[in-house]
Amino acid sequence: MDMFRTILAATDFSDDATNAAYRAAFLAAEQQGRLELLHVLSETSLKAVRELIPSYGDAETKLIDDAQRMLDALRSRVAEDTRMAAVSRIAIGAVLDEILSAAEQADLLVLGAHGSNRWREMFLGTTADRLLRMCTRPVLVIKRPPETSYRRALVPVDFSPHSIAALNTAMRVAPNADIMVVHASAVPFEGMLRQGGVLDDEIERFRGQAQQEAMSRISSLIDEVAEGSRRLFRFVELEDAARLILAKEESFGADLIVMGKHGKNVVEEMLLGSVTRRILSDSKCDVLIVHEGSTATGSPAA
Fold this sequence. Notes:
With 302 residues, this protein is of the alpha/beta class. Helices cover 48% and strands 21% of the residues. It contains 12 helices and 10 strands.
């Protein structure tokens, strides 16, 4: 199975971003890949410093130097603790644009769930949220300090093409993990059927058929993309998708959830799906979002 060749961790030096750098280092070591650390200084903020403190001529230079020292210190700590050397870089520009540009040259982007400016995030949305909507590479959102390799991964599927991409990516990023494939089953137009007078026994029969069909489709999906030696489990239940995923996260003891993202049109690119947003908000473990167009064998970048 192909590995991630380049793993990029974007950091603003917050606690979550530092956890992201460490997780990226562990993954890079497992994948025998290249680790890159990136910190972006907002060009707009630097301009404001020049305008607000014109008498302090070297304020901008000092800010850049301070950021470089912090990034160097982070790189040194990560290397010492994980034995994984990293390439680090300071970029100056629009934060979102610079991270997106760097991510296009990587196979995986790793971010902290929260940044250092909580007040701004309340009104404008997190950088992570905006990146998840726009980035075409897999994006791993880190919620807790890494302790070991991923051991239990949860992969919700709806049998669309991005379900295959999500399962493929889960097997790559967590090669030694048990993987639970889950599907929230439903009877199409159940409410309308009930309003139309369809008996409860008949509805229950439809539910059973839907669950059997979903289990069969999960088996076919696993046969299509999984290796025979992998420990994959399957679970289907008639339940709201978000509630089912969060419940299985707890009962399965998942330390990673891998979800696909459609991104077929402009509206879907602007707004994350409600289930994805709920999982990003309420789950306790790390969440990996996979774009439907993500390749299963790594990016073209060398």
